[in-house]
Amino acid sequence: MSRHLIIILISISFLFSLSAQETNPTKSKVIKESSPIDADFLFHYYKQDGDNSAVTGGTGTEKLTDIATQIIVNVPLDSVSQLKVSAGFNYYTSASTDNIDLNVSSASRDDYRGQFNFDYTQKNPARKYYYGFVAGGSSETDYISISIGGKWGIKSGDGNRGVDLLAQAFFDKWMIILPDELRIINQDRIETDNRRSYYFSVTYFQVLTKRLQSSLTTEFVYQHGLLSTPFHRTFFENSIIPKVEKLPNERFKFPVGLRLHYFWGDRIVMRLFYRYYYDDFGIRANTINIETPLKISNYFTIYPFYRYHTQTKSNYFQEFGRHQITEDYFTSDFDLSAFYSHKLGIGFKYSPLFGITQLKMGNSKKVLNLKSFNLRYANYQREDGLRTFLISTDFSFTIF
Amino acid sequence: MKIIYFLLILISGAVCQTNQNLQIEILSGVETGWWVYDKGSTEESTPNNLGWDRTRHRAFLPTEINAFYKIHRYKIGLGVNHSWFLENTMLSSSDTYFFPNRYPVSESTVKIFKLYFQSEIDLVQKPKYSLSPVIKFGFFNIDTNHPEKDNFGTKSFWGFGITNQIKLSKITLIVRPVLYWLTIQPKIEKVYHEKHNIYSIGLNVGLRFSLF
Known about the structure:
The complex is a heterodimer of chains A (400) and B (212). By secondary structure, chain A is mainly beta. Chain A has one helix at residues 2-20, and strands at 37-49, 64-76, 81-94, 110-124, 129-140, 143-155, 161-174, 194-207, 212-225, 233-234, 243-244, 250-264, 268-279, 284-291, 294-295, 300-311, 339-350, 357-360, 367-382, 387-399. In chain A, strands 1-2-3-4-5-6-7-8-9-12-13-14-16-17-19-20 form a 16-stranded antiparallel barrel. Chain B is elongated. Chain B has 1 helix and 12 strands. Chain B has one helix at 2-16, and strands at 22-38, 52-54, 58-71, 74-85, 89-91, 102-104, 110-121, 124-125, 129-143, 152-168, 171-186, 195-210. Chains A and B meet through helix 1, strand 4 and strand 5 of A and strand 1, strand 8, strand 9, strand 10 and strand 11 of B.
């Protein structure tokens, strides 16, 4: 991991040291003291239930509750650059991971996850382009992950079309936790605890008419290393002894997405999104998402949304007890099965022109303005019986 | 350890007498991670088939002192770090709920002392804010009761971080997410690819100032 990281870090450092020569701080316009800082406080509560847990070989409870909080702060450093920092924390309880060992309600029942991200953007208004870099990290009981990347984009003179590029590399280190009963049995051992993922996306956007905007995004993802989950069991025909899920150590993903936004008068926007997904595990997927924000008044917007997803199964998936012991790769994780799913929800946004409320910050002249409030509810159902429920809030603040 | 801290401050102070480009920083924070003992393989081509012993995912409490010499956008320096790893047990790869197979690695905490070289580059320089990736390489000492400790050979590590420098009058507030990867090679490799790895990720916060 270190060798790859060093090469990427040095490359990025070199690139940015070159580009930074154009942006001497003394030349860039220093932002006025009153320039606003945006801060978003997000919270979500998520609950799921189903009967196809991969931990118990594609059968058994998938009950899970997740509570998450996140803060995203967007700081304009001057008139041409900004820094976005986000940090989040999740706490979840999972009946399925509780089955890793044979003791119900053990330590594997609940878990924490922390994550942070940086996103720096430097604009060049004269040449209509920007560049930036992103970095992040996250940690959970069984993994540590870091990511680094760069981005670049350019717009046409009138701003009606442009291209955005994003490249990221993720370096994950996994703790090998096997199902309890498979720790003693001498079977194929896990060969690595590394997972590396390389992501590259190209987005082309174009304003087609006064009312219609479009964008086309192509993504390329290459992963290698430990792509299976070590505590997932797989059961075989004519055998009562399970094995640990085994998947190839390379995966290539290729999603393409088309987005259309149609402004239907002053009060309704139709947001359409379609995505085709291909990977070399054998999954082909189609997703369509429709969201229609409707402005009820100048301050209040409701936005119902619906998502339909369908996919074919992976070459390596079989249900509980259907795999043959002779197979090289096997999983009973229903995320890799053939299914269709529906997601239906509604959101509410309250955003008065001058904010909901303002608060003076101590003795300073700065004011904290609660700019808007968002409430979002979603319900998800999958063909195999997985049902989820999500409610989330977003308090959006501005400091000026 | 105290001697090295003292020496570092003394050297830094001496250099500072003649140069304003020398910066000192003191940091502390919290990290989380684990220690894994990769028991290697009896055959060279199939690494790890003897399994992995590991600690649980636990917190590290670090404290560190760094000295940097600044040349334009680049900084090079030395540092020392002392961390307490809040774990005292390692779980064998055959550890199960009904048949526990665990062994102690310390009486209370595992203590790790690092000495390293480091380099930082300012990617973003604003009047009140700078952002700089930092890379560290060095060696460490570990205070542990691990049964294999007599066979511990070279102990080296890599560290990566992103330094956020927020200027507050004469001093600078440092906020730095970090990742460390420590490796212990055995003195005598009894099987192929045997080694220890300690991973941690976290956030360090501290102050940086120029001495002159």
